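Pilot study result, target chain (189 residues):
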Amino acid sequence: MAEATTGTSTTAPATPVVRERIPHEIVASVLAATTAFVGGTALHLPPWAIFISWAGMFLMGGPSLAGARKLWCAMPVGSTYALLIVLLETHAGTAFGESQLARNTFGALCILALNSALMYTGRVRFFSLIPGMFFGFASYFATFFGGFGFEAGNPWAAWVCVVAMNALGPVYAWLSMRLTFPVEIKSPS
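Predicted structure:
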């Protein structure tokens, strides 16, 4: 109705049609294969952490510098909160006693407090991508408890390794699109 009375069009501009010269499935698979070399070094890096943030880029609508910046800001924050939980549990985990119940209670309180802080950190515009923080959070725990990193069992080494590997995900996402060598084709009108 508004279109008829104002004379303005509500039709969005046509999106360019793009053809991939090399199928995305092939490019992404070749790139995924390279992570074996990234992780299979003496540093024992967690290659799957690349996949977490790579997928995150596509959940955000596809590779873009703006999306990468959001992830690059958010993921280390999540990993830092996870590091704090590990450090608290490592150094004060028996504060309530030696039993498993006491340790679990302490752990639960650490997670409650620090997860709440993580969520509130998401209110800061710079760190507002809360799913990105959880990508870093989960990636850190998997790296630390999975024994990955240049010094297995070292919470700080796990943090350095996971932050570096998560940072590569947006790069891989961009490469997975760029290396298809896309060309714009005329769309049939």
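One observation from the pilot: The chain has seven helices and two strands. A full batch analysis is planned for the follow-on phase.
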